[in-house]
Amino acid sequence: MMKIAILTGAGVSAESGLGTFRDKDGLWTKYDLNDVATPEGFARNPALVHDFYNARRANCVDATPNAAHDALAQLAESAHEVALITQNVDDLHSRAGCLDVIHMHGQLRRALCAQCDARWDAPLVMHPDDPCPFCAQATIRPDIVWFGEVPYHMDKIAQAVEDAALFVAIGTSAEVYPAAGLVELARGKTLEINLEPSARANAFDEHRFGPATEVVPAWVAALL
Ligand code: OAD
């Protein structure tokens, strides 16, 4: 039995048809993140932000987990003690059968009231005028961590990475902190799995480059 901490990013869901952010044709080449992924953007134009996340939610519902999600779920169910940390706001790890996923950037399927802090399951389509089911204010937003906000569960995540004998980052460009800095907390071995070297590739002991649907199942099979 080994303690393993895994950090996933958009690259793990790319082959399920969900766009990444920074690749060629990525979401941040089509949208300005200041408009759709900051509290200031939401204050300026909540309808635009809801439209953006409504479209992401629709894509997510249509997508299915791929071989990388399946392999990680298999690993999580094995004798190894796995902490699965994701930057992804989709639910493909859960739908692959991972029971305990740490969503550090929130979730598309959850809604949050900016007024009373209540959280609930998001409808497929959210509108800025919809009342909060708890306080009735029209202050609902997707439960997504935007730039300038603090990611969720950071204490638990830092502990899991420190305690792990192996830290693995999969499908992330390592351009966004604090996720990109987690590798610095690792005391065990570190492995990067990605299409190409990330911005923090030099911080990892080992690398495996290639599509997640090929590299992740092969890595998991070798481990089990
Ligand atoms: P990025 O789009 O920045 O990076 C995706 C990474 O996945 C890149 O390094 C790609 O080379 C790699 N990749 C693409 N296709 C792949 C495949 N089939 N197999 C393996 N790797 C592949 O996405 P993230 O690093 O997840 O935050 O982005 C981090 C955060 O920035 C997101 O959580 C989001 C975004 O802004 C917020 O919106 C708050």
How are the SSEs ordered, and which strands pair?
Elements: E1 3-8, H1 27-30, H2 33-36, H3 39-44, H4 46-62, H5 67-76, E2 81-86, H6 92-95, E3 101-103, E4 106-113, E5 119-121, E6 140-144, H7 154-163, E7 166-170, E8 189-194, E9 206-209, H8 212-223
Parallel strand pairs: 1-2, 1-7, 2-3, 7-8, 8-9
Antiparallel strand pairs: 4-5, 4-6
Helix pairs in contact: 5-8
Residues 9-11, 14-15, 20-23, 26, 33, 37, 87, 105, 145-147, 171-173, 175-176, 194-196, 198, 211-212 line the site of 2'-O-acetyl adenosine-5-diphosphoribose.
Account of the protein in words:
The chain has helices at 27-30, 33-36, 39-44, 46-62, 67-76, 92-95, 154-163, 212-223, and strands spanning 3-8, 81-86, 101-103, 106-113, 119-121, 140-144, 166-170, 189-194, 206-209. The protein is of the alpha/beta class. It has two domains: 1-18 and 65-105 and 151-224, TPP-binding domain (Rossmann fold, 3-Layer(aba) Sandwich); 19-62 and 108-144, SIR2/SIRT2 'Small Domain' (2-Layer Sandwich), CATH 3.30.1600. The strands form two sheets. Strands 3-2-1-7-8-9 form a six-stranded parallel sheet, with helices on both faces. Strands 5-4-6 form a three-stranded antiparallel sheet. α5 runs parallel beside α8. The chain is globular, with a radius of gyration of 17 Å. The chain starts with a strand and ends with a helix. The protein binds 2'-O-acetyl adenosine-5-diphosphoribose.
Number of structural domains: 2
The fold-level CATH name of the largest domain is Rossmann fold
CATH architecture label of the largest domain: 3-Layer(aba) Sandwich
CATH class of the largest domain: Alpha Beta
**Name of the CATH homologous superfamily of the largest domain:** TPP-binding domain
Number of helices: 8
Bound molecules: 2'-O-acetyl adenosine-5-diphosphoribose
Strand content: 15-25%
As residue ranges, the low-confidence spans are none
The coarse overall form would be globular
Radius of gyration from the alpha-carbon trace, in angstroms: 17 Å
- Specify the biggest β-sheet: 6 strands, parallel
Secondary-structure content class: alpha/beta
Number of strands: 9
Spatial separation of the terminal alpha carbons: 10 Å
Give the spatial strand order of the biggest sheet. 3-2-1-7-8-9
Proportion in helices: 25-40%
> What number is the mean pLDDT?
97
